[in-house]
Amino acid sequence: MGSLLSSLGIECGGKEQEKERVVRANDREYNLSYKYANNEIRTSKYNIITFLPLNLLEQLQRIANAYFIALLCLQLIPEISSLSWFTTVVPLLLVLLMTAVKDGSDDVNRHKSDRQVNNRKVEVLVNGQLKSEKWRNVRVGDIIRLENNQFVTADLLLLSSSEPLNLVYIETAELDGETNLKVKQALTVTGELGDDIQKLAAFKGEVCCEPPNNRLDKFQGNLTVKGETLSLDNDKILLRGCTLRNTEWCFGLVVFGGPDTKLMQNCGKNRFKRTSIDYLMNVLVLCGSGRARRARPSLPSSPDGGYNPAFSAFLTFWSYVIILNTVVPISLYVSVEIIRLGNSYYIDWDRKMYHAASNTPAQARTTTLNEELGQIKYIFSDKTGTLTQNIMTFNKCSINGKSYGDVVDFSGRRIEITEKTPKVDFSWNRLADPKFSFHDKSLVEAVRQGSKEAQAFFRLLALCHTVMPEELSDGGLNYQAQSPDEGALVTAARNFGFVFRSRTPESITVVELDQVTTYELLAILDFNNVRKRMSVIVRCPEGKLTLYCKGADTIIYERLHPSCSKLMKVTTEHLNEYAGEGLRTLALAYKDLDEDYFKSWRERHYEASTAMDSREEKLDAIYEEIEKDLMLLGSSAVEDKLQDGVPQTIEQLAKADIKIWVLTGDKQETAENIGYSCNMLRDEMKEIFIVAGNTTEEVAEELRAARKKMKPDSSDEPPLHKSGILGKKTEVVEDETVEGEYGLVINGHSLAYGLQKDLQLELLRTACMCTAVICCRVTPLQKAQVVELVKKHKKAVTLAIGDGANDVSMIKAAHIGVGISGQEGMQAVLSSDYSFAQFRYLQRLLLVHGRWSYIRMCKFLCYFFYKNFTFTFVHFWYGFFCGFSAQTVYDEWFITLYNLVYTALPILGLALFDQDVDHRWSFQYPQLYQPGQLNLYFSKRTFVRCVLHSGYSSLILFFIPYAAIHDTVRDDGKDIADYQSFALLAQTCLLVAVNMQIGLDTYYWTAVNQFFLWGSMSVYFAVSFTMYSNGMYLIFTSSFPFIGVARNSLNQPNVWLTILLTSILCVLPVLAYRFLYMQLRPTINDKVRYKVRQEKAPPADTPYRFLPRRISKRRSGYAFSHSRGYGDLVTSGRFLQRPIKSRPALFSRSNTSGSPVAEDSPQIFRTITEEPIA
């Protein structure tokens, strides 16, 4: 039975928690005994068999649908129903059908996506042979072969590869949005298997590792081979979703498949998201139905009719429940779905959110959350690929006290650099990167005219790095950099004439201004987080020894020679300018070494590198010894290129009182840099707090100290109040105001303590007091936990935006999830509610589409409840005159068509086309967004006002027509004071009054609005004259009893006078109230609309402003994002021992008689070894 339910897509019980995973290579029978998941993924919700029952079950969970089905059952009982069953069943079926079609369409797309992925092909080792299999047929324990540019099939243990040292290069765009390559390395014992199929088929290794989890950056396990146990970490694992790059082939052992892979584990659970208005509507449905039940009269009846009084009262009660159901009719939900669908199409069709470069339009992937876009209070954003393009560009530099990179006019004033600004011509350099752009021609002139300082600057950039060059088939070069920072600097040196051409473990070849020069690489003093610098020691062909060093300016300045003090002062001014523009800076220095000193230092270094005790400390001391008395060359400034319009977008959203939190996996310095670049963090802030505690107590103290500094009188206990509806009460942390602006930066390890139960409210209080919050080094799980914390304890709507698989859990956790689509992969987009190509489109999504959708929906609901409560209250007043017999005051056909035809189109026209101000004024005044955050336009208080307004209108609409027609005769003396004439007059007055009300509510009149409004009135009169005609009565006598009423009543002047009087009395209080309120307490909306009327022309579209130059003393500690120890791979003896491809020589060597490379090997500081585990 369980397998049957599983095949139908229904889970039949909890799966036993897996504590550890044991996998044997090439042993399917053994691995199948553990019942591990296969490699098939399933993101769809239904299949052919389960669609109808599951979808109906989901729809019946909505209170409204269940309520109307119960009402339908009552209408099928003739004894209590005074209305025909079709008045409910037709609109109910329409709602269920529309929702089912929409859900089915969405699920069909999910099935197509799943099928496309599951049917991809990969080579699997089966019975000693490589066979092409579909991904869905791959099992845990299989050995598979991947080729260059191929997606990784499952989570694999890397066994061997075509590259030296068993390295592979992978791109993780689908996982984290980063396009720079990352390096993975197999164990030596498995690397020896190579691509020998027989050896691989005979491999019987056993992996014992952690159970499936969503930690992308961690892996713990052991591999047992021939009795030897070796440790496994994340560097030896290839994750599903990665792409193999620059690697001819590799073999891997499947450890996790399908839903157990880290990619799918990060997808989280699909959540049914509903707006706050949906929840409120459920409450109002209950209130409306309760009000109908409370309206039950106590009806004394005679038992002569066969019923006792109690039973008669019981039947009358349910009759009134049916009659008064029009308080919340099913057409409300039909209209809501149509409005949401229409506003979703506006997003899809918006050309201003279309990205031409990638041919990517904006897309509303859900139709149920549009109005929630107008209520966002907190935005949680990823950094890489979301705020930034993950592209580093060499922007500026300072060389020997002169700054390069700015463009000035003839008077020396700085000119803004645009796309039209002329670029430097690098055609003289045959090896220049055509994608590189620079605008300051004076730097090229300095290099080509022989400036020693400028040439030394770029020589340093060409030598001091760990970049690997790749020869392309067309003779060009491609740099494989572990971090895009290094790639940008080496590319800059390449374009300015110092081309890093090739490297071996003992040498670096550079083409310097068309001359090939080979430097002997003697040592690499690698980067780590404490040193914040890296150095290389090289010997030039002339035999001169030089140390080149680059790193954080504060670190380099401490090691400069005293003679550099004047140059250091000028360079510091330039660094302050670069940092003020959000650029990532480095200081560059060099030192000429004495041959004898270097030999003695090398011996001491060897002793330190082989020491058994305190090796790291001794090596650091040796490095410190040689890295002193450096000569300053200058500084570089690299731009972590933001997406277009990011600072302006963040500024606009901040004016709308939307708080933005950046949640990134990057290190603290990088995150802070981006914070300054996009104007989240500013020097003008009173203080930026850094929370980096390593214990619960330290984190608690840092958070408490920050809170006390922002608000000294704040209490230790958080200000809480209970909030919720339908019995779901939660503790909400109230907002606390502070003077000035503050920022908060918190590390991932500190955040883990802050998210603990006893500290999370303190973290939330402190963070919410700050203007900007940046969480760095956070895991995907922590991103989701931060979002959940704010959702739970702040009465606010949240939005999460990201572009990688590491953002999926955050996107699903937030009220609204937005995916950035483009070159970084589609994992986030597939899990999002809305998607577009650029972060800057977020302001249009919220300030224009979101605000309009919210206002339209609120106007729709207010008007809808007004017209239906007014309609229903007239029934109630009529009950006092009909003995509460459950007789309807209106014609039955009018009751059926009132919401479906007569009043449907005018309110749809308002809810689809109305605008309080156009999009340009919405950008001009972002403060217009704030009422939505406070939920001012539709709330319980607004609902009560609607009810009171409806009560007043219903009194006018019942008693004035009743009084006007009582004992009244026609012009010819015939009596017209009958029930049918009164019903016609009452329903006509009602329709005219509610249409006048919608006219008052409409701000933006279009031809469609006019057509809907006047057309609905015309249809009403046309239908009335038709249905009340002699012909309809003769054909359907029982269905159309109002014969001749329309023509006999509507030709009387007193009837039209009554209609006019009731309409004026209904709208007059509304006009008076709005006039006085606007004069005495005008809202921001009233003020802006008044300004719109005063202005003759709308404001122009706001261009992206050129940010003025500012000065900042804050700079990143180190610009690079690569990990520690990468220099060891560069200097390894077998690194890059790949077959050399033959190519025509581009340049002739200046010295062909002998090799300038010395026989001595470079120092290897941290070798890579695998130590057996006891």
Features:
1174 residues, alpha+beta, 9-stranded antiparallel beta sheet, 40 helices, 18% strand, disordered N terminus, transmembrane, ATPase_P-typ_transduc_dom_A_sf, ATP-binding, magnesium, transmembrane helix
How would you summarize what this structure contains?
Helix content is 42%, strand content 18%. By secondary structure, it is of the alpha+beta class. A hairpin with a 2-residue loop joins strand 22 (498-504) and strand 23 (507-512).
Outline the structure in words.
The chain has 1174 residues and is of the alpha+beta class. Helices cover 42% and strands 18% of the residues. The chain has 40 helices and 37 strands. It has a nine-stranded mixed beta sheet, with helices on both faces. Strands 17-16-28-27-26-25-24-23-22 form a nine-stranded antiparallel beta sheet, sandwiched between helices. A hairpin with a 5-residue loop joins strand 20 and strand 21.
